[in-house]
Description:
By secondary structure, the protein is of the alpha/beta class. The chain is 32% helix and 25% strand. Helix 1 packs across helix 2, helix 5 crosses helix 6 and helix 13 packs across helix 15. The longest helix is centred in the last third of the chain and has 18 residues. The N and C termini lie far apart (53 Å). Adenosine-5'-monophosphate-propyl ester binds next to helix 11, strand 20, strand 26 and strand 27.
Amino acid sequence: MTRYADFYRHSIDNRDAFWGEQAALIEWNTPPQQICDYSNPPFAKWFVGGTTNLCHNAVDRHLKTRADQPALVAISTETDTERSYSFAELHAEVQRMAATLQGLGVKKGDRVLIYMPMIAEAAFAMLACVRIGALHSVVFGGFASGSLASRIEDAEPVAVVSADAGSRGGKVVPYKPLLDEAIALSAHKPAAVLMVNRGLAPMDWQAGRDHDWASLREQHLNASVPCEWVESTHPSYTLYTSGTTGKPKGVQRDTGGYTVALAASMKHIFDAQAGQTYFATSDIGWVVGHSYIIYGPLIAGMTTIMYEGLPTRPDAGVWWSIVEKYKVTHMFSAPTAVRVLKKQDPSWLKKYDVSSLKALWLAGEPLDEPTAQWISDALAVPIIDNYWQTETGWPILTLANGVEQQTTRFGSPGKAMYGYAVKIVDESTGEELTGPNQKGVVGIEGPLPPGCMQTVWRDDARFVNTYWKSIPGRLLYSTFDWGIRDADGYHFILGRTDDVINVAGHRLGTREIEESIASHPNIAEVAVVGVADQLKGQVAMAFAVAKDASGLDSDAARLKLEGEVMKQVDHQLGAVARPSRVYFVNVLPKTRSGKLLRRALHAVAERRDPGDLTTMDDPAALQQVKDLVG
Ligand code: PRX
């Protein structure tokens, strides 16, 4: 057996011994009494009896050895600013924020919703929450008032931390009006709103509720707020993600398991050393931002880079200039970003010295071979695909180069990571497909390893029914992805089994988009499917039936309604969810019993053969879709 194969087997066969060893990578206030309590499957409790703190492990722990080393560098090519904080400075800022939140009434176990652009204060807010045992719930800044309102309602935050505006491509995107509208829409009203004023957009101020960060920070300049030692199983945060239904799920993460899992991944997967520099180009609104912009690199004692801006502005060399300037050793991005760069002049890459880079990790969506090959040739470092989910918090499939250097196979995110008992199973029987290259659903046998979701926020039944009951005959976690494993243990991911789509690495539920479109007064019915796209991987495409189609007989009239529908999605969900096209049809393709033929619609929208149509009610419906997409 190779070293990694041994390591993997040990993690599965001697689960508690393996994770007991990993637990030593972090600092505990009280060591755990029991490594894993799986007496109530599928609920796993990790490091039971131990007490620790995520902020302590990310910040305070490093004060002894690296207080003056940069911990966080926040770069914005939107506002042309670079701010660097040493571990000591980060420690001070986090305590100022923690004291401010406490002053606003936030206590252990309370939720704080964070709706912010990629600025350092967002990191202070996240770290401040976990420092005092409050749960953060970060909502992606690209989401609009409707998405925000449903998250406020579900998380019931005591406080919201936000900013006057973000900026994208030089265009200011005001956040405050969206936040005010979301709070107005939500049945739950947070008691306090803390605003970071960047001076980018004017703000309406609601006296008594809204507070200014700069003034409160001044009052807490010398704040000393100790870390609250919490039970390992105390939730650290919730993060909403899309599934099949319209209502996003609050993925709830613990404290001890997550801290250990990240520390272990920094060592075994990223082969990271304290003092090195990590640059993840994601956003704190997504899971990659939580695990690999904020917590993972800081736990490892690295410098982490937060970036606000586009990869192509002021020019397509901007990321490589950051790599050169900060001697970035580890870079993490998404295939779409690489495809965007690939369309630019290749000479941008040659302008900078990127020799500090050890590897580039890519995740979030399938990495196609030409893209992998292009960036591999350009950077001359390993390109490491990794596959995981908001639910798991860290990679399920990749290469653990810290354990053993393994060869990348383009098109495959790699092998099952230690701790994950990955199974490929038959969708209808639940039977395990053990032979090579058999296509099935990618499942994980419980207990899920440390760091994965504990449950759905306030909805244990949904956790069990959604994730653990979808594969017949056995209690198995479903990733809702199709996959195969080859004879050497390399996996290939072949797309989702459910109605989740992936647009430029952003995970969206088609049902959420459908609900938003259907709320337009002139829409009777709508179906949204994800259609393959060269640049973004997938885009959302909508097929709608108008309530009153009498005015829709001209291109201009159809375009006008299409524009209105898109605006509505922008306004309710955010531009990330906007469909690339809204086509108007007379009827949607359905079975005789009235069920939408989603697979057939999807196939035709991608100009593929729709397959068996014997149950279809009206063949003209699909023909019209075919004619429209051309
Ligand atoms: O369908 C898979 C796809 O993205 C989904 C998870 O998205 P999210 O919860 O946003 O988490 C992203 C964490 C990196 C998966 O169910 N996906 C993620 N990574 C890959 C991928 N598909 C193919 N290859 C990947 N490397």
